[in-house]
Amino acid sequence: MNEKTVILLICFTMMTDNLSAQDFNRAGNEKYRPQFHFSPETKWMNDPNGMVYYKGTYHLFYQFYPDSTVWGPMHWGHAVSKDLVHWKNLPIALYPDSLGYIFSGSAVVDINNSSGFGKDGKVPMVAIFTHHDIKGEKAGTNDFQYQSLAYSLDSGTTWTKYAGNPVLKNPGIRDFRDPKVMWFEEGKKWIMTLATKDRITFYSSADLKNWTRESEFGNNLGAHGGVWECPDLFPLELNGKKYWVLLVSINPGGPNGGSATQYFTGDFDGKTFKSHSKETKWVDYGTDNYAGVTFSNTGNRKIFIGWMSNWQYAQVVPTISWRSAMTIPRDLRIEQVNDQFYLNSNPVKELNKITNLSFSKENFVINHKLDVSKKIADSKGRFKLDIFFAGTDDFSIRISNERGEELILGYEKAADQYFIDRTNAGESDFEPGFAKKHTAPRISKSSTISLSLIVDHASAEVFIDNGLNVFTDVFFPGSLPGNLKIFTKGKVRVNKLELSKIESVWPGF
C-alpha cells in the first residue's frame, strides 16, 4: 500500500465513520485486533453477505450493527478489495426500513438485465436479502421473514430498494431466510437456495422478481441439531466432470459445539439436489468458521469467506470497540477419497503478497523436540508455518507466550484424528465452553501429512492434508505468542519446513 493510498484511506475513514486519524491508528493497534483479516473498525459484525466480484473489485457485504458491539438491528456493511487482502471500508449499503431489518443474502451481476433494473446501458448489480420484521416476530407470527431486492447501477456504490418488495413472501415458516442466488445456465434461470427451518428450499426465477418453488432438500440428511442458515449452491469440476456442492450452516449442532457449516456433494438439475452420500461432512472442525459462502461472478473459481466466530460466545469475547472478524479468503476444490467426495479449502494465493519466507529447511529429523521460536521472534504474532511430515506419527505444535499460555495442535495416531486445543490459550472466563480441545477424524489416506498453520493476533487457521481437514479457532492470549515448538514421540522425519512472516494490512503496523 503506497503513501497516497494510505492518506486516501485515512481521509475516507474519517469522513464515513467519523474516526480521527488518531482513532484510526488506535484501531489497528487494539488488543486482539486482527492484522490481516477483515474486521470492522468499530461495532458489531457477523455473517458475510452479498459477496460478488465485478470489474476487478471484490465486494464484501456483512451483517453490521453500527450502534453497539453486540447484535442489534441489522444493516449491510460494505467493504471492497482488489486483492482479497487489503480492504477499504465504504458507507453502509442497506439500512433497516419499514419492512424490517436487513438480514443475510447474496448479490449477483445481472449481465442480461433480466430484472429490468438496468438503465442507459448500465448493468445492474442486484442484492437479494431477507427482510426481518421485528414487530411480526414479537407478535408471535410465523411469517415475519421474507425475501426482497435492492439494486445498484454504479457498481455497488449506492443502492436502491425495489418498490415491489418483498418478492418472495413467507408461506408460514418461522425461519425463512438467507437467499443465495446463482444463474443456472443450462436452464437459463436464476436459482435461489433458501434456508427454511432445518431444510433447504430451491426456487427459480427468470427475472429475480417472480419466484417458483422447485423442491426441498434435507429431510433425512445432514446434522439437525439446530436451525439451518446461510446456504450456498455451486458447481466444481474434478477431472472434467461437474459436481455440485451445497453448503449449509447450522446453529447449534457443530461437531465441536455451537455454530458450524456442513456440506453435501451431489447432482443438481435445476430443480432437485441429490446428495452423493448420507455422511455428514464439515467445512471446518474448528468452532470459528460460520455462515461462510462464496463470491458470485468469479467463473470457475470459488472463493469462500466465513464469519470467524461462534454464536456460543460471539457477543462476549474480550474485544472492546469491535467484535468479530472474517476468515482469510479460501479457494474451494473438490477431491475424491476412495468412494467419497470431499471439499478441500486452502488460503487464496493472494495472501502470498503479504507473506515473506524467513526460514526453510528440508529432509531432516525431529527427535522429540524442535524449537523454532527464534525464527518468529520478530514476527509480531503474525506468521505462517508449512510443514510436510514424511509419515503419520504423533506430533504436536505448540504456540505460546511468556505468560505460559499456549495453543496446541497436532495429530494422534491411535485415534487417527487431528486436534486443536485452546484449554490454556488465554482469556476464556467469558464463556464456560470456550477453553476446550477440538478434534477431527483424519480424512486423507496418504502415508504423509502436510500442515499449514496461519496465526494472527487472536486466531489460528490450520489447513491439513491439502485442506481436507481444516480448523479455525480464535483465542485471546494476554500477550502476543513468541514461541513455536514442535514435539514428537520419537524420531520423525520431515520432508520440508517453512516459516514465513505476515505483514499487517493496517497502515503503520
In short:
This protein is mainly beta and 509 residues long. It has helices spanning 3-17, 21-28, 134-138; strands spanning 43-54, 57-65, 75-81, 87-94, 101-109, 125-132, 145-152, 160-161, 176-184, 189-196, 199-205, 212-217, 227-238, 241-251, 260-268, 273-275, 281-282, 290-294, 303-307, 322-323, 330-337, 340-347, 355-371, 383-389, 395-400, 406-412, 417-424, 437-441, 449-456, 459-464, 469-474, 483-502. The longest helix has 15 residues, at 3-17.
Write the layout of secondary structure elements.
Blueprint: H1 3-17, H2 21-28, E1 43-54, E2 57-65, E3 75-81, E4 87-94, E5 101-109, E6 125-132, H3 134-138, E7 145-152, E8 160-161, E9 176-184, E10 189-196, E11 199-205, E12 212-217, E13 227-238, E14 241-251, E15 260-268, E16 273-275, E17 281-282, E18 290-294, E19 303-307, E20 322-323, E21 330-337, E22 340-347, E23 355-371, E24 383-389, E25 395-400, E26 406-412, E27 417-424, E28 437-441, E29 449-456, E30 459-464, E31 469-474, E32 483-502
